[in-house]
Amino acid sequence: MDNNCPFCKAESEREIIASTSLSFAFFDGFPVSPGHALIIPRRHVASFFDLTKDEQQDMLKLADCVKSIIDEKYQPDGYNVGVNVGEAAGQSIFHVHMHLIPRYKGDVSNPRGGVRGVIPSKQNY
Q: Where are the domains of the chain?
């Protein structure tokens, strides 16, 4: 645990929407779209690739559970799922967190390329 890490304190400060013994989830405080949620391992680790296989699998299992909650509450048309690893990839909080971002028809003019949009010139192919 890192006392300066907002995700290490998140369970006591946020409404948890789902949890397991290894991870928990809550709605993002700065959502990209309605229902945007974060899945976070309980152990303070910066990189997804430094998690144990059990922790990685648990986050994916929890993502399925959170998707069901989002589906029921928001009825999205699709999803983007992503983890930023490292400053060059846009990671700003160095505690692993997976974004589960609901997508809706018409939320952008052309969704083609999806997560490829992290480098805008590579989004359309």
A: 10-108
pTM: 0.93
* Residues 49, 18, 43, 13, Cα dihedral to 10°: 130
Beta-sheet strands, E only, within the chain: 18-19, 23-27, 37-41, 78-83, 98-103
Cβ neighbours, 10 Å, residue 108: 11
pLDDT digits (tens, 9 = 90+) for 37-68: 999 999 999 999 999 999 999 999 999 999 99
Domain 10-108 -> CATH class: alpha beta
pLDDT tens-digit map of 93-106: 999 999 999 999 99
**Residues identified as active-site:** 97
